[in-house]
Design brief:
- Helices cover about 80% and strands about 0% of the residues.
- The protein is an all-alpha fold.
- It has a domain at about 10-115.
- Helix 1 runs antiparallel to helix 2 and helix 6 runs antiparallel to helix 7.
- The protein is rod-shaped and about 155 Å long.
- The two termini are about 80 Å apart.
- The relative contact order is 0.06.
Length: about 280
Amino acid sequence: MSIPRQPAQLEAWERWEQPAFAVLPYVMLVIVASMTVVVKWGESTGDLLIDLGLAAAAGLWMLWGFTLHPAWRHRPRRMAVFFIVLAILMALLVLRAPWYGFFTFTGYFFAFYLPGSRARLAGVAVIALITATSQNGGLPKHWTAGAIAIYLVIICINVGVAGALTWFGWVSAQQNDQRKQMVEELSEANRRLETILEENQGLHDQLLAQAREAGVLDERQRMAREIHDTLAQGLTGIITQLEAADEAHDRPSDRDRHLDNAQRLGLHGPDRPAGLGQAVPG
């Protein structure tokens, strides 16, 4: 019995999943920073330098806190600090240029590493708020009731969709981890079963060998008993014939016959024609 392996395509996707998600934020940041250079080239150099400085700070912060120090992912406090700082940088970038929303949506990936389901949902809500701000073109320029209502609707849509997708993704990830654990446990049980079957096969072969040896020994003992019985019977017949010959000392013909019978018993054993091993009355 063996556990079926996952399809090759699924295994390949699992191998490339983490590297792809790790590289994606940098790629998007480079793209939107390049857009900033194209859009704002020729305008205020100070604004462009601020935008690029914030983008560089976000990139360096991701490189330092996530890529170069992967152990932070398993330390709740450091991961929380990393996420908060990154969210602030993302918010500043979006407020500077709304198209940085193409980069800020990658914050959902980092929110997944926050400790606990509540912290993850809170992180998703923060990223959804930043993304909604980018979709709104920044904060409302005029804080009128209509502008605020539109802004709140965009926020609610982003928070609702992102929260639901994150929740279902988290549940799916937990189920996937449980299935992997079950597969590992089944594989371990299968290996143990194969080991037990191999041990049982060795024990079976050993028992068969012992049974054959016991059969040979029984056969030898049976043959020994038969030989013993045959010799005993033959000796008894010889003694009987010799005693009969001694009693027939005055009858030469009977004595010679008994002696012949005793000689034949000594040469051929007791399995002779009837009467050969029996004393003839004198």
